[in-house]
């Protein structure tokens, strides 16, 4: 058990690093730093010698090798592959465990298999991100898949300690909060993948208006962006990006109210475990809101944009942690 738990803990941290570094790659426009997959300009590493650069120019005459972007993309692929390898190891450890429970009672085995299948699908999404030239829907799916992988790994880790405990019921309010959090993460991902972070350049207003009059909701949320085009930098009109950004802001307000009610409900709970989990959630929410506000005021600096992605993952983990504290109080 201790050995398995250490592997799961390391893999969870690694998944978090993959998500944060993936955000950094996307935010520095390095998602197409290598135009092919899984290699880079036909090589396993970034071409650097004269002969390699000459060969890359032959294979991709319309693409200029930008070493910095290419290395960021390849490093992300390397650590994502390492993550997949560790998840495979976890599944094999569960599968070949000497005293294995029957499939229907073996939550750890089913979860490890689900994680392995999810990370394989994540690899396909990573490939399609490149081959479909960072199509917003594909990139959003890849982002959600990464957060789902991280969350399930965290559940897997928590389950190692709670396996023998009797679960309690979770209040419906908590599930409503989880729904709001997932919806806001999707909205944030849609904002990022459509390069709408500055869709409203001011705060608390948007272009000086409480409800901006220049929004195009139909293009922002209902228009299908066809495959085959290069979406790096985004192709939506400014009114569409304003609509996306403003909806993300409204989502942040709704989420704050929802999570605020949950925090108030549990922050003075008689269980120290639940009380501490509620305080962690409050701290993560406050940090994420603060980063979001400062981001807009300072015109989205790279370090804050990356931190905003990181704290979205932390906020999700803090919420899952509270759910586990309530369920196994």
Structure description:
This protein is an all-alpha fold. The chain folds into 2 domains: about 1-165, no CATH class; about 170-329, no CATH class. The chain is about 70% helix and about 0% strand. The chain is built from 10 helices and no strands. It has helices spanning about 1-25, 50-60, 65-95, 105-130, 135-160, 170-195, 215-220, 240-265, 270-295, 300-325. It is flat and about 65 Å long. The model has no long low-confidence stretch (mean pLDDT about 95).
Question: Which characteristics define this entry?
Answer:
329 residues, mainly alpha, 0% strand, single chain, flat
Question: What's this entry about, in short?
Answer:
The chain is mainly α.
Question: Care to count the β-strands?
Answer: 0
What's the main sheet like?
none
Please report which band the strand proportion falls in: under 5%, 5-15%, 15-25%, 25-35%, 35-45% or over 45%: under 5%
How many distinct helices? 10
Q: Give average pLDDT, whole number.
A: 94
The Rg value, from CA coordinates, equals: 21 Å
Order of helices and strands: HHHHHHHHHH
Stretches where pLDDT is under 50 for at least 5 consecutive residues are none
Distance between the termini: 22 Å
Helical amount: 55-70%
Query: Which structural class fits the helix and strand makeup?
Result: mainly alpha
Number of domains: 2
Global geometry? flat
Quaternary organisation:
single chain
What order do the helices and strands come in, and which of them pair?
Blueprint: H1 2-27, H2 50-59, H3 67-95, H4 107-131, H5 136-162, H6 172-193, H7 217-222, H8 238-266, H9 272-297, H10 302-327
